[in-house]
Amino acid sequence: MGFFSIFKKSEKTEPEKQGQQESSESSAGFFQKLKQGLSKTSGKLVGGMENIFLGRKEIDDDLLEELEELFITSDIGVETTMKIIDSVRDQVDRKTLKNPEDLKNALKEQIFNILNIDNSLVQTADRPYVMMVVGVNGTGKTTSIAKMAKMFKEQGLKTCLAAGDTFRAAAIDQLCVWADRVDVPVVKQSAGSDSAAVIFDAIQSCKAKNFDVLICDTAGRLQTKVNLMKELEKIVRVAKKELPDAPHEVLLVLDATSGQNALSQALKFHEDVGLTGLVLTKLDGTAKGGAIIGIVDELRVPVKFIGFGEGIDDLKPFDAQNFVEALFDTNR
Amino acid sequence: MFATLNDKLNGVFKKLKKQVRLDENNITEALKMVRMALLEADVNYKVVKNFIGSVQAKAMGEEVLKSLTPDQVFIKIVHDELVEILGGKDYDEGKIRLNSQPPTVIMMAGLQGSGKTTSAGKLAGLLMKQKRNVLLVAGDIYRPAAIDQLETLGKQLNCDVYSDRQSRDAVKIAADALAYAKKTAKDVVIIDTAGRLHIDEELMAELVRTKEAVTPDEILFVADAMTGQDAVNVAKSFNESLEATGIILTKMDGDARGGAALSIKEVTGKPLKFIGTGEKMTEFEAFYPDRMASRILGMGDIVTLVERAQESIEDGDAEDMAEKMAKHGLDFDDMLKQFKMIKKMGSLESIMRMIPGLGNVSMGDMDEKQFKKIEAIIFSMTRHERKNAKILNSGRRKRIARGSGTSVADVNRLVNQLNQMNKMMKQMKKKLGGSNKLNPAMMRDFLKMR
Question: Which end of chain B has fewer CB atoms at under 10 Å, N or C?
């Protein structure tokens, strides 16, 4: 099943075929690309990892402590770090991990096991396939939407955007500029209008015009703003009136630069609107985005995409295996 | 979910309370927990290390060991040290250095999405309030619609905006804008710049060239309060390239614990000047080190709380409530009323954190979902019971539990909570000298006493 095969077989086979094609085609070069994207990102972790393991013949407390420091500085968070370190410490005590190489592999497995949950897109027979993109201010929602729109379009899916951020100054213009570049239509109203109404209209219009995918932008909001979170709930409620299963995907965009507050964001957004996936952006900086490990561990909501640059192609489906491999790769 | 920094530190201090005095052992233990708590609050690893070092040195002093109330002393040391790092007691940096020869040039810089454009607008609004003639400059030529965004803000603020949609040269736009400002006799020029990664050499060089072209009086590094461990790298790079003059911390209205503030201050040594506290153009404040330190330490940011409460609660209500609380203690009717007020003020968690001492009242039971349950319990009480918690014997409690579809344990918990709150009120009253009315000034004094 290809990553992009969002539509159930009986309904539409065309996009699925393409999805499969794309999937096998991309998997070969994908590891390289992800490594490129992560090269700066994982520099610290990998470099540090190498340094830490360099010349070590046995596992001692010093080694574990250095790993702990490294994990924490990668924003993995105290709790998750302790959980991972404690579990390998157990194995060290029971002598199942005999040397640093074993330890490295065990850590890899630990992180992989946390991140490795099914992250294919939710499937449906509905048209349009409605994606809602949410998050706090400035995480990169609009940019990610543009990148996703291009991906879907390249899958041969008729894609449309909804300018649901009616609040921030010029947010609608920003989405329209991107839509122009990707060459997809935008359903919009004037600034200050009701976001739920925009999205409702967009779903109706997509139904009428036979669009396959609708990606809805929403205004950035801090998870602590009760009224704004209620507004999101309203958007979901109103969308369901037009299409009972909509939104099929609710993606939370998280900034890799953010620290442990990302967990608070994920918990609250999940509680209020029910997330189906995470998008981790800005992985091209020096931030490690380690916070997602704790988030995925806690919520069991998968990372679906990662963003690693300002270019329109700098977004890829997330792959736990590749991600962990790239993080730990020592042969680069 | 992990405990908040407040809870952690309160745990530490509770432990200390049981000890007769500080010694090497219990200080080490307490510091360990402070360390963990700070790390969880996203304070950078190395910054935490330094912080712990200096607290330890001070806590080990003889004066402390002889003190009769070591926990109080320890709290004070941690708090003072935080205040010190954040800017010190006599902090007066929430200001823009105005050039005696206008125009004063201010340049914004920071990562993508940190809030530069919004902050530029807010700063313009603040300066306009001080009767300055401000020019905003749309220097972000990369992000789609960034120019539109600044122009929209300019319209809202009624502030002149300089832009050049044809130009692809951010340096030239800044220089041209400065010339325009001189011609039109502006007092202040605020240059918005595109967000960029600190490791993007090309774009960082562009910022340096812009700086050289317009020689800003202020270069403000804009950082997101939610930033994690990487805050040190980002702040350091920006500061090294540009030699910033100050820092703006944005998105402070969220529940981020703001460890980044400590980290950034520590690595750059530059003053934190302003904080962004909302999306409205007026939600912009001077930075206060003591408020921030208190908030981080769970000593509560009562000043901010009172300010926020004043906005969302009608004056009469608050006065009545405060007076009643101080005179007679709370009853269940007050609890209901409080819930309503709190709901108006924002998230329960963020409110609770601001109230001194409430960090250690078990508020875990009082999340928003619990509201309904508690309401049900109170609604199942008679009017008399609501006013007189004392008469709630086991028979009454059983009846209330049945009536509200909860358990006796739930009812007990609620009664205990009320008792705890009243106990706290009494303590507070005692410390405030038995006054019958609580007001912001007293709250401030109360904070200082701790």
Answer: N
Name the most confidently modeled range: A90-94, A98-102, B199-203, B429-433.
Answer: B199-203
The long-range contacts involving A109-115, CB below 8 angstroms and separated by at least 24 positions, are A110/A84, A111/A84, A111/A293, A111/A324, A111/A327, A112/A320, A112/A321, A112/A324, A114/A293, A114/A296, A114/A297, A115/A292, A115/A293, A115/A296, A115/A303, A115/A320, A115/A323, A115/A324
pLDDT, position A141:
96
**Domains of chain B (ranges, CATH numbers):** 5-86 (1.20.120.140), 104-292 (3.40.50.300), 302-449 (1.10.260.30)
Contact A177 B144 (CB under 8 A): yes
User: What's the ipTM?
Assistant: 0.84
Does residue B19 register a pLDDT over 50?
yes
pLDDT at residue number A44: 46
Sorted by where each starts, the structural domains of chain A and their CATH numbers stand as 121-318 (3.40.50.300)
Burial per residue of B248-283, b for 16 or more beta-carbon CB atoms within 10 angstroms, e otherwise: bbbbbbbbbbbbbbbbbbbbbebbbbbbbbbbebee
Min Cα–Cα distance to chain B from A43, Å: 13
Residue A189: CB partners within 8 Å, gap ≥ 6?
A163, A166, A197, A198, A201
Q: Is the pLDDT of residue A12 over 80?
A: no
**AA letter at B373:** K
Residue A112's Cβ-count burial label (10 Å; 0-12, 13-18, 19+) is middle
CA–CA dist B239, B233 (Å, integer)? 10
Under 8 Å CB-to-CB from B205, ≥6 apart: which residues? Answer: none
- Put simply, the answer to whether B113 touches A177 (Cβ < 8 Å) is no
Contact between A138 and A220 (Cβ < 8 Å):
yes
Hey, how many other C-beta atoms are within 10 angstroms of the C-beta on B92?
A: 9
Nearest to B45 among A69, A260, A267 (CB): A69
The angle, 0 to 180 degrees and rounded to 10, between the axes of the packed helices A78-93 and A291-299 is: 80
Each residue of B225-248: pLDDT tens digit?
999 999 999 999 999 999 999 999
Residue B144 to residue A72, Cβ atoms within 8 A: no
H or E stretch including B223? strand B218-224
Number of residues in chain A: 332
Residues 6+ apart with CB under 8 A from B2: A77, A78, A79, A260, B40
Give per-residue pLDDT as tens, B147-159: 999 999 999 999 9
Whether A204 shows a pLDDT value over 50: the answer reads yes
Q: Which of residues 405-444 of B touch A (CB under 8 A)?
A: none
pLDDT in tens, B344-384: 665 555 555 555 544 444 444 455 667 778 888 999 999 99
Which residues are CB-contacts of B220 (< 8 A; sequence separation ≥ 6)?
B106, B107, B108, B109, B119, B123, B244, B245, B246, B247, B248, B273
Q: Considering CB atoms only, which of A139, A173, A291 is closest to B228?
A: A291
Give the global pTM: 0.77
CB–CB contacts below 8 A, A to B: 153
Taking a contact as any Cβ pair under 8 Å apart, which residues of chain B between 236 and 265 contact chain A?
251, 253-257, 259-260
How does DSSP assign B94-143, residue by residue? -S----SSSPEEEEEEESTTSSHHHHHHHHHHHHHHTT--EEEEEE--SS
Strands A159-162, A277-281: parallel, antiparallel or unpaired by DSSP? unpaired
